[in-house]
Amino acid sequence: MKVFGFFAAWIHGDPRKVVYPTDSYGQFCGQKGTNNAKKAILFYFNILKCASPSVLINLQCPTTQLCVPKCPDRFATYSEMQYHHRSNKSYWEYYRQFCKPGFDNPNKEEAGLTCSLAPVPSPLAVLQRCFPDFITRNGTLTVANRTAFKDVLGETRSVTDLLMSGRNTVLQKVCLTPPSARRQPYGPPRRGVTQNYRVHRGLLVAMVVSLIFILLLRFTAGFLLWFIIFAVIALVAYGIWHCYEEFVALKEKPSADVTISDIGFQTDFHVYLQLSQTWLVFMISLSVTEAVIILMLIFLRNRVRIAIALLKEGSKAIGYIMSTLFYPIVTFLLLAVSISYWAVTAVYPFTSSGDAIYKVMPSQPNCMYANLTCNPETFNKSNITKVCPGSQCMFAFYGGESPYHRYIFILQLCNLLVFLWLVNFTIALGQCTLAGAFASYYWALKKPADIPPCPLFSSFSRAIRYHTGSLAFGSLILAVVQLIRIVLEYLDHKLKGAQNTFARFLLCCLKCCFWCLERVIKFMNRNAYIMIAIYGKNFCTSAREAFFLLMRNVVRVAVLDKVTDFLLFLGKVLIAGSVGALAFLFFTHKIPVIQEEVPSLNYYWVPLLTVTLGSYLIAHGFFSVYAMCVDTLFLCFLLDLENNNGSAARPYHMSTSLRKILNKRNRKR
User: Fold this and answer.
1) Do 376 and 358 touch, CB atoms closer than 8 A?
2) pLDDT tens by residue, 233-292
């Protein structure tokens, strides 16, 4: 059914409706082989009508739309053209391009439905559509050096009205400021981000720093974690002491007996800080927190040491298998292919071939026939023109009432499911591939001599050849849950204005439950893929074995998970912050050694934010590999403990540091 739906979408789809704009007659602008071949831009007769909120609902601006070769480059009105064209024919030659084809009577008095009565300068074509030339001069928004103009009715309108109308037109959610607005007399032209801002250098620095950080974790993981733990203990202790000082100081004041319940709820938080009871509550809370941290540290110290040892071992594993750090590039390319396929397939049903649908576009409000379908051939003879004078029957979209058109929404849901399936399968393939490579490192008794050659490529080949079905099954389960969550979000959006409290409460509970279910499935799938990479069993068996293995070591799982998440988050923030700080110093000429290479910038925030965000994403890509490495080594470590006893027949494969922590050793005989 899904394959048939996608085949039907590709057969019935018409990509021209995405590439070319469509005028009021349903003809494509700029399409070769038609009368509009040299008219590639869509022009709105009266763009002020696009300011109506109904535009966003009906997806159609209620004014005549015409294909033109170029947009207007100056203000003009129909009455001015009639006055000047008798002495200068060029006025009419310029103006006639903004009239309907076939109109050749500049002396006609009332041409509001045939010609645009007041074209506005629109030298910039955004998405092949004419928009006013907005320029900010000295803080004032202007169009062609004007801040006001007269509309078709002779009323004075501001440039802000034009801006609002431009924002509401279909497919115009883009910046309306043209390049000319950037050429201000008080500053040089801005330069391209990627070419002149040296952004690529900042991203390269982030890549190198991420690599160095991961490789150095084998030496710094223990220091960083213990330093942060004791720093938190010291900060909480200082907080307790400070709260005690404030409590003693306020206790001696006359108003010391006033309690929080006496003053009730106050919007000004500083009022509570004047009460001794507030600081007593703070002191007790911090004391309990301090006690919990110390007790957890005492009883879980060995688990923390194991987590640190596994983090160090993960750094060593990546050092031996450096190719794993660049596997996210493969994942990115596969995700790009999946997203491209979904986007193209999603567009085709909406551009399906069918009959041209025309709708009534009234010139006055409160028309009873507004947005109803009409026939352009019989429209002028119908009663609509009498009831709603000035109304037009204009093209709206292509559609129909065939079974295919009725089930487009179902096809889109199927397409969305397949998209989620492909994305999750790509991620699952990456996780299984990396797990297989790192598992081969762990189970090598003599490292690195026993590590097989090309472990990453071998693991990828095994995953594709033997485990495709298991990965697809696990991905499908997750995709179905994600699709249900999307449908629930859609229903929640539709029911926002509903008065049924029980329905909204039930929907909220369902959203919460499926969010938790998605998190659990992601966690279980990740560990199931690791077990698949280790033993090669099917998905259900691997998921069951991984679940019971983790449940038998739930405390170790919790400690390692939180320690790893914390250190990786710290690394991401550290790398993004340090590279961002260097970029700030670079763009603000604060580094004397390389001042000559720094371009002169009017605004450095765009490249600075680009470098910082790009650095965080690069660090996230590197650290995702590291997190997968630690998780794989952890499961291998648990299996090693359960299945081996240190004898010559079943030696431990864990590192020497882990054996020391657990008081384990391998016996030669």
Assistant:
1) yes
2) 888 899 899 888 888 887 777 666 666 665 666 555 666 677 777 788 888 999 998 998
On the question of a cis peptide bond just before residue 448, with omega within 30 degrees of 0, the verdict is yes
Q: Which residues fall within 8 angstroms of residue 512, CB to CB, at 6 or more apart?
A: none
At 228 the pLDDT is 77
**Distance of alpha carbon 110 from the chain centroid:** 50
> In Å, what is the CA distance from 259 to each residue of 45, 248, 287, 645?
69, 15, 21, 62
Question: What is the rounded distance in angstroms from the CA atom of residue 379 to the CA atom of residue 363?
Answer: 15
Q: Which of 206-220, 227-241, 292-306, 414-428 has the lowest mean pLDDT?
A: 206-220
Strands lying side by side in the sheet with 65-68: 65-68, 41-44, 129-131, 124-126
Please enumerate, as own/partner, the contacts of 184-187 that have beta carbons within 8 Å and a separation of 24 or more: 184/136, 184/137, 187/602
DSSP state of 362: -
Residue 340, both tokens: 């491209």
Please name the residues in contact with 113: beta carbons below 8 A apart, sequence gap of 6 or more.
64, 390, 392
Tokens of 81: 């053209």
What confidence score (pLDDT) does residue 171 get? 32
Task: Report the distance separating Cα 386 and Cα 404, nearest Å.
Answer: 37
Give the contacts of 314 (CB within 8 A, at least 6 positions apart): 217, 438, 626, 629, 630, 633
Q: How far apart are CA 668 and CA 482, in angstroms?
A: 52
Q: Are 480 and 491 in contact (CB under 8 A)?
A: no
Indicate the burial class of 623 (C-beta count within 10 angstroms; 0-12, 13-18, 19 or more): buried
Q: Which residues contact 450 (CB under 8 A, 6 or more apart)?
A: 444
For residue 513, what pLDDT is reported? 94
Q: Looking at per-residue confidence, does 319 or 520 come out higher?
A: 520
Q: Which tokens belong to 248?
A: 């003693």
pLDDT at 438 over 90: yes
pLDDT digits (tens, 9 = 90+) for 442-464: 998 888 888 888 999 999 999 99
pTM of the model: 0.68
